[in-house]
Amino acid sequence: MTGTDRAPRLGPRDCRVQAAAILLFPWLLLLPSRGSAQGQPHAFGGIRENITDLEHTLSIDMTWPIFGRVISLNGVPIYGAQVKVDLGGGAGTPQVLRTNAKGEFKTEYTLNASVYTQVHVKIVASKEGYFVARETADFLRKDNATKEIIVVLQEESENSELLPWSSLVSSLEGRFRPPAVLGSVPESARKDFQKGAGELFDKPDFPKAVASLTKSVNREPTCINCRLLLCLAQFSAGSISSANQQFAELDKLTSSEKASSERATVFYVAGVFETWRHENKNAVGYFLKALEIQPSDSMVLQELGRTLIFEKNWESAEQYLEKAIQAGAPPEARILRARALLEEGDTDSADAEMRAYLGNKNPRELPPAARMVYVDLHQRLELKSFSKVNSVVNQPFGELVKAMPELQGMEPASNQDELPPILQKVGESVEAFFRDFPNTISLEEIRVENLRPNGKVKGWFDEKSNYLLLARPEKWGLGLTEYRASPKGTEAQAVPLPDGFMRTKGFASASVVFHPGCQSGAAFRYLGRQTMDGRETFVLAFAQQPETAKMIGLFIVDGVSEPELTQGVAWADTQNYQIIRMRTDLLKALQKVRLIRQTTQIQYAPIQFKGKPAGLWLPQVVTVTVQWKGRNFRNSHRYSDFKLFNVATEEKRKQASLSPEGDANPN
C-alpha cells in the first residue's frame, strides 16, 4: 500500500506537512541570520570601543555584550537556570549566571582589541530535572555587534514512553556507515566526517563529534550527509537551537529529487523530535512524508505507530506497527503493537504479540514501558470472567430500584435516543473539570466504623486532616492526585489503625469514567429523569468493560493483588450537565482477595473560590461501605473549608509546599 492510499485511514488525525521549511521551532525564525543581522547592533548594544587619549601608543579596549535566553522545547522561558559563559583561550574569566523570570541572561567582557579580533563563546546551561544544553557562537570585531544566543533545555522525566534519543542515533548509524556514503562525501570534508561519525557512534563523545562535523560542513557547505550527521551530533550534545538551524539548511539542500533518501531521513528525525515536543499531529505529518519516499522504512513505521498510540488512533497504530514488524523493526515494535491491540480490546492477539516479544526473557527484567504493558495485559486476562456479569447497564429496572433505593421516584426513560447527546455534554463537563482543575486543600473529617453483620455499629473513631487534591502537571494525564497532608503540604504519615478498621480515600476522580477519553472503556445506559437535591437530573448507569476499560483498579492486600472494575449510577444536572451525585459498586466480587462489596456514594457541592468566575463541583459528603474477609466497614467523609493553594516546584517536584490563595464556601 502506498503512502497516498494510507492517508485516508488516519481520518481527522491525518496531518500533512508542506514540502517547504522543515523548521522544528517556528520561534527560531526570529533569530538573526549569519548573513544579515549579525552586522547590526542589538538592543542590548553593539560592541563599544573605549579609546583613551593614548590609544595610538597603548591599546584599544572593546566590550563584547553576551546575552541570550534559556527556554523549553516549546519555547517557554526557564527561570533559575544556571548558565556558564566561557570565551576560552584565556579571554576573560568564565562567568556563571542565573536566568531571570523571562529566561534571560546577560554579561559582558572587555578585551584588548589588538589581541582579540573575534571571540568564540561557549554556553553551558543546566537545571536540575533537565538535560544539560550547550551552544556556541562566534562574533567578529569587524561586525561591530553580538547577537542573542538561544539555549533549549529538555526535561529528563517527561519522555519515558518516547523513543530515546540514543535509540534514534543508533537507528541511523547504518545510514552513514556504508562505503558508498563515505565515498559521496567530498574529499576535503571526508576525514572530519569519518572522525565525527566515530565520535558520534563509537565512543561516543558528542561535543567532539560536533567540532569535527562542523569542520566538514564548513569545508563543504552543500554536503548533505555532513549536515545530517552534524544535526544528529548537535541534538545529542544538547545543542538543539543549532540543530534546528541545520534543519533549515537541510530543507534547502534536500528539496531536489536526487536527495530523496536524505530527505526521508530529515522527515524521520523531525518527526521524532516533534514527539518529544508533544506535537503529535506534526510528527504524524513528518512520518507520512518520510513513508511517501521510503514506504518500507521499519523505524519510520514504528514511530508512526507509536505516535498514533499517543493520539489514541488504535486501529491505524496497530496496522502500521504490524508493517514495522514485517519490515524488521526492533522488538519494541511488538510491545507497542500489543498495547494498541489491548486498547482495541483484542486481548488474545495482544497476548500472542507479548509472547513473541518475551521469548525466554524474565518478565520482571523487562524495561519499565514493556513491564507496564505486560502487567496491563495480565490484568485484562484476569478480567475476562467479568464479561459475563449482569451489570447495572442491562439489569431490569425493577431490580435496579430494589438494589439502589436512591432511584425511587425516578421517571424511567422510554428509550435510549437521548443517551448520545447527554453523554457528550456530560463528557465535556467532566473534561473541563480535569483540564481546568486548580489545586485545592480542604478539611477532611472522617468517621471510621466497624459494623456488625446486621449493619449496627460495633466500634468507631473520628479523624481530622488536611486533604489535598493536586492536578496532574502533564496536559495529557487524567485524574487527580489525592492524599492527606501535613501543614507543609507533604504527604502525612498515616496513623496506624486499630484492628478491625479500614481507612478510605480517593473520590474526586470518580467521574473520570465519563471523560471523553475514557467513555470507550465503559457501557452506558440512560435510566431517566429524577429530582435530586432540589435539581432536575439525568440519571445515567455505567459499567466498565473488561476488554477496553481505561482505568483499572487494583486491590492489594498482604502481597496478593486482584484487578477490579466498577459499575454505578450518576446524576447529572439537566441545565449544566454537572454530575451532582454518584454511586459506584464493584462490577464483580473479588474472590482472590475476598472483597465482596465496595459501595461508594458521593454527594457533590459547587465550591466558589475567590477570584474564580465559576464554582467547582467537588465531593462534599462521601460514604464508603466495604465487605471484606467477612467483616463490614463504613467510613463517612465530610469536606469543608476549601482553599486554593500553590505547589512550589523545587526542581523535579521534590517537595510540595502550600501557599493558600483564597477561601471558598459551598453555595
Descriptive report:
With 667 residues, this protein is an alpha+beta fold. The protein folds into 3 domains: 26-152, Immunoglobulin-like; 168-236 and 243-382, Tetratricopeptide repeat domain (Serine Threonine Protein Phosphatase 5, Tetratricopeptide repeat), CATH 1.25.40.10; 397-628 and 636-666, outer membrane lipoprotein receptor (LolB), chain A, CATH 2.50.20. Helix content is 30%, strand content 28%. The strands form 4 sheets. Strands 9, 10, 11, 12, 13, 14, 17, 18, 19, 20, 21 and 22 form a 12-stranded antiparallel beta sheet that branches. Strand 10 (440-451) and strand 11 (457-471) form a beta hairpin. Helix 14 (347-358) packs across helix 15 (368-382). It is elongated. The model is unreliable at 1-21, 25-46, 48-58 and 648-667 (pLDDT under 50).
